[in-house]
Amino acid sequence: MATPPSYDDRDGTIWFDGRLVPWREANVHVLTHALHYASSVFEGQRAYAGEIFKLTEHSERLVKSGRLLGFEIPWSVEQIDQACREVLADSGLEDAYMRPLAWRGSEQMGVSAQRAKIHLAIACWPWGAYFGDESARKGIRMIVSPWRRPAPYTAPTESKAAGLYMICTLARHEAQAKGYDDALMFDWRGRVAEGTGANAFFVRDGALHTPTPDCFLDGITRRTVIDLARRRGIEVHERPIWPEELEGFEQFFLTGTAAEVTPVASVGPWNFEVGDLTLQLRSDYLDLVNRRLTNA
Of 27, 60, 83, 225, which is most buried by a Cβ count within 10 Å? Predict the structure, then answer.
């Protein structure tokens, strides 16, 4: 299999501070504040058949994330929506992954950054199944990470901030080095939290159980799947989940813009089936995003 091109060396354009620029020219200085102090926020969103799924919800969350980090993105939600559509149209892609990113610039160095300019860029590219084409059929294999999601009084956990993903990278690298696909993270209390970039759902006796998102993102895909489940009359319990409960669950799946709905076959010592309820919700989700199902 050919190695895909580096993300800084591709054809196409990126929306950068209000205009489309050639992909290879969408650069920032090495002394950009965000590079040193993680003062950036981002979104991950997908387009299906030429339409960006729940675009405005993503743009609203991007603006909210910036405010939680203490800065105002100098474009409105409506302008960000339009910029995303412009990027997708210019790319010529029908199905794509999209990455809006806002960050503090290079006007000030040090922990303080009040004078740093706020920038915004939006890129898109083709991206298939996050965990590979076989993930839906076989389910992925996970380990339990030693890294934990921080308490909400230690970090702006309601934001999709770049800095919060540092431990996710560490966790996933460890999992992959050991031959696994991903890692399940607990929170600072020892409760089950999420994967490294996706929310967690468990199935027992025909009902869904999902951790309360009080220290990690209440994902847009997570909320969508909850709506789909309730439309089918499936009970959904949002509650604290402790590790000792994992043995009693029959199915486990992850949800996220990149992961979509991905079954999990195992995590640590616990095994799960790729069951009918998981596959039904996966099918419902794909029908919805491809507009084969009335919007939930």
Answer: 225
Average pLDDT (143-151) is 97
The CATH code belonging to domain 13-125 is 3.30.470.10
Q: Which CATH class is domain 135-289?
A: alpha beta
Domain with CATH 3.30.470.10 in the chain: 13-125
Distances in whole angstroms, Cα of residue 89 to Cα of each of 53, 55, 121, 163: 15, 14, 16, 31
Q: What is the largest CA-CA distance in the chain?
A: 57
DSSP state of 9: S
Q: Is the pTM of this model over 0.90?
A: yes
Which residues in the chain are classed under CATH 3.20.10.10? 135-289
The pLDDT tens digits for 190-214 are: 999 999 999 999 999 999 999 999 9
Give the residue numbers annotated as catalytic, written as ranges: 160
